[in-house]
Specification:
39% of the residues lie in helices and 17% in strands. The protein is of the alpha/beta class.
Length: 366
């Protein structure tokens, strides 16, 4: 008799829903019945119909301990022996780990968003007494830092998304090129000052080449408002498209589909630059892999295999170098399009079947 496989996907925080569909598709395609336990702030940000049962909690009304306890109650009620934590760094998970430390029937697997926590965080070490298996989100982290040996790790690329049923008409003229900058505007993460200087130098040339830079993220941060004011003061609006307020999923994906390239603006002098090499990733990397778009990166990233064959580079010390790189991109666009197609044909690790095999190998092999 076949035993029905079940899993509980949990997210105690209020972010990282972009990973949900990859979990969902892999688990359901592998015969799992899927349950969910999530922060209520995530309502409406994923397809609840994909789950057998979904339960939400209000973090102001339910203590950390009770959140973890409720997750265990869901497991007990539904005979679930596998918990997958979408953000494996929380106090809720620490409580879960300690509560189930000697319960061999319950397995917990986590997504590690901050690799260095595995070796430098006391709280994470406590979690790892129980959680011995983690997903990391890019092989770039394997290239740039040492992976700890006391846990099992597989790379999960969350690059699979449901097709949005609601069609959004995005007006893009055939001769216009769009380069996307993804994420909320934060000066600590992306070098917008360099970007504005490059626009000031190359603005006329960009307009003649019909290039526009699309800011796919919230402008409502303090840095976003500062950036917006600088753009207006310098008269650079013609080279940019930006949004006020929340960008709904259908609109976001419709714009991603039409991008010609994605730009990270992650530069060596930024406060979070080292973090993006040794600890976490820029979400733009996986968006490029998901939507099969070339990347525009600072030249220090050229040495990493993760990007070779998909990217072209500029020097963060010279805004004029950025203008030259964009100009080169335009002149070689047909070649770059062909190279991008070949990149994904050769790199099977970005395919669904490969990701599924890696995922199931981690959660099912002991």
């Amino acid at each position: 008799m076949n035993v029905l496989k079940k899993a509980l996907l949990v997210e105690f925080g209020t972010s990282h829903t972009e990973l949900f569909y990859t979990h969902i598709r892999i688990l359901k395609d592998s015969g799992y019945q899927l349950y969910g336990f999530f922060n209520e702030q995530l309502k409406g940000r994923f397809q609840e119909s994909e789950f057998t049962e979904v339960q939400f909690f209000n973090e102001k009304q339910l203590s950390i301990r009770k959140q973890a306890k409720t997750a265990l109650e869901i497991c007990k009620k539904n005979h679930i022996q596998l918990i997958i934590d979408n953000s494996a760094h929380s106090n809720q998970l620490k409580w879960l780990a300690l509560r189930t430390l000697f319960n061999s029937k319950i397995q917990i697997v986590g997504v590690c968003h901050y690799l260095q926590k595995l070796t430098k965080s006391l709280s994470q070490r406590i979690i790892s007494l129980k959680v011995k298996k983690y997903f990391i989100l890019s092989d770039l982290l394997r290239e740039s830092t040492q992976i700890p040996s006391h846990v099992q790790i597989k790379t999960l690329y969350p690059i699979f998304f449901p097709k949005i049923q609601e069609n959004r008409h995005i007006d893009k003229k055939q001769d216009v090129l769009w380069i996307g900058i993804c994420g909320s505007v934060l000066f600590s993460r992306r070098d917008y000052h360099y970007f504005l200087e490059a626009l000031r130098i190359g603005g006329d040339a960009f307009q003649k080449m019909n290039i526009q830079f699309v800011l796919l993220g919230s402008m409502e941060t303090e840095d976003g408002q500062t950036l917006l004011q600088e753009v207006r003061n310098q008269g650079l609006e013609a080279s940019m498209i930006f949004f006020q307020g929340f960008i709904d999923e259908a609109t976001y994906e419709a714009y991603l589909e039409k991008m010609d390239a994605l730009l990270t603006l992650v530069h060596p002098h930024l406060p979070e630059h080292a973090e993006y090499l040794n600890n976490k990733i820029s979400g733009t990397y996986n968006l490029a892999f998901a939507w099969k778009k070339p990347l525009i990166l600072e030249k220090k990233f050229a040495k990493y295999k993760e990007f070779q064959g998909l990217s072209f580079y500029y020097d963060a010390k010279s805004p004029r170098s950025f203008v030259e790189a964009i100009t080169k991109f335009i002149s070689e666009k047909e070649t770059i399009t062909t190279q991008t197609t070949l990149f994904f044909q050769k790199n099977i690790k970005y395919s669904f079947e490969y990701q599924k095999s890696q995922y199931i190998d981690l959660i099912e092999k002991y």
